[in-house]
Amino acid sequence: MMPDRPPVAKRSSSEAALIGADCYSSSMGSRAARSAAGFAPVGVALLVLTVTLLFVFIDRPVDAQNLETRAADLASMRRQIAVLHGRLEAVSSRETTLEDELGRVEAERELQELRLGEATAALELADAQATATEERIAQLEASIALVRDDLRRRLVGLYRLGGHGYLRFVLALEADDDLLPVLRQLRYLVRRDRRAIDRWQVLGERLEGERAALAARRAEADAWRGREQVRRDELAAAESRRREVLERVGRERRRLAAETEALEAKARKLSRFVAALGGASEDLLGEPLDEFRGVLDWPADGEVAIGFGPRRERRYRTEVPHNGLTLTTDPGSRVRAVFPGEVRFAADFEGYGPTVIVQHAGRAFTLYAGLALLNVEKGEVISLGDVVGAASDSLYFEIRVRNEPRDPRAWLR
To answer: What is residue 184's three-state secondary structure?
Structure first.
């Protein structure tokens, strides 16, 4: 099998790479013309070396480490976004309290900041990838230009050889010349030209692929540019919501503080008033109220809306004093005395509305407040079950023993 290499021992590959038209300019059929092909310019060797180096350089990624770092940063941001999404869903699923609402708003704002960072990082990555693709396109175009110039020179050389092209080598043989070296030379030249054409085609295909990739990168960058602006707007909206929530929380806290202070003042005033009533009169004769735990009837029909003890404000986690029971009642329904005693007060009381206070044996008092109508007068002695008034839509009921508020449910059955 014949080796695939230049057949002429005394010629280098660069000398045989190009057949110039001047090889046959003086005499198309003489041996002097054949020997003149050995004087190929040194520039051909430099051209081949330049094309080879450019091919090596094109295959090397442009700033690959920087692109990988940016892609890793983007992946890290997306993991953080997933974690924040989970936190936000967990907060939203719980009952809203002050801390929960603030936590949700803060988590939402932090999420929007990360989403904006994701869009910015993705945009920068897409721009960097587009820039790298543009550089590869420029290198491919430069390589294609070099290969094209090389092919052009070869075509010019073939044109100068005439219509028979490389067959001129055979036609120029003398009768006593050896045919085998010429055939080897022809095979080498044909394969060399085939490789050059294949390289041209490969470079063209790579160029088309890079141009398509560049268009995709630019479209991706444009899309992320639009998302970045949207997410900037979303972050601004989240910041605005956060400010609104903080302002509302501040207003609610101030309102609740004022309400708590008013309720505490009202409770203190009622406590002082009941203490004054007890101090101004002697204890009543009879069985003390304290001995009838768990056997007394409810003062009115209804459901307990607010139980005994400080009310814990669920939303803001603050406490509001509540020294009795608040019942939901039907307007106009009867409110009855739970134990015999003497009416010590029957009038409007600041903060409570129409109120009846009854003293019982054992220095105990019962209080019926928020009435729609009074049915007794001060100083009146009442029996168990006597109607003290008509209910509104709610009734506030207290039991005090030695001026200490007690849970009425300990007496009621």
So the answer is: helix
289 in Cβ contact with 401 (< 8 Å)? yes
- Given a cut of 80, is residue 408 above it in pLDDT? yes
User: Residue 385 in 3-state DSSP?
Assistant: coil
At 355 the three-state DSSP class reads: strand
Structure tokens at 114: 């990360």
pTM recorded for the entire structure: 0.46
373 within 8 A of 355, measured Cβ to Cβ:
no
Q: H-helix or E-strand containing 335? A: strand 334-336
Dihedrals φ, ψ of 304, to 5°? Answer: -75, 115
Distance from C-alpha of 246 to C-alpha of 361, rounded to nearest angstrom: 52
Interatomic CA distance for residues 274 and 272, integer angstroms: 6
The more confidently predicted of residues 320 and 355 is 355
Torsion-angle region of residue 356: left (phi > 0), alpha (psi -120 to 50) or beta?
A: beta
The yes-or-no verdict on residue 73 having pLDDT over 80 is no
Q: Are strands 353-360 and 341-349 parallel, antiparallel or unpaired?
A: antiparallel
Question: Could you read off the pLDDT of 321-348 as tens digits, one per residue?
Answer: 788 999 999 999 999 999 999 999 999 9
Read off the amino acid at residue 406: R
CB 329 within 8 A of CB 397: no
DSSP string, 75-138: HHHHHHHHHHHHHHHHHHHSPP-HHHHHHHHHHHHHHHHHHHHHHHHHHHHHHHHHHHHHHHHH
Average pLDDT, the chain: 76
Q: Quote the CA–CA distance of 199 and 169 in Å, as a whole number.
A: 26
Contact 99, 317 (CB under 8 A): yes
| Strand (E) or helix (H) holding 153 | helix 98-161
308: which 2 tokens? 């005994």
Q: Which phi and psi angles does 173 have, rounded to 5°? A: -70, 145
Taking the CB of residue 359, how many other CB atoms lie within 10 A of it? 23
Q: In sequence order, which residues have a C-beta less than 8 Å from that of residue 292 and are 6 or more positions away? A: 339, 411
Provide the CA 103 distance to its chain's centre, in angstroms. 15
Residue 252 identity (one-letter amino acid): E
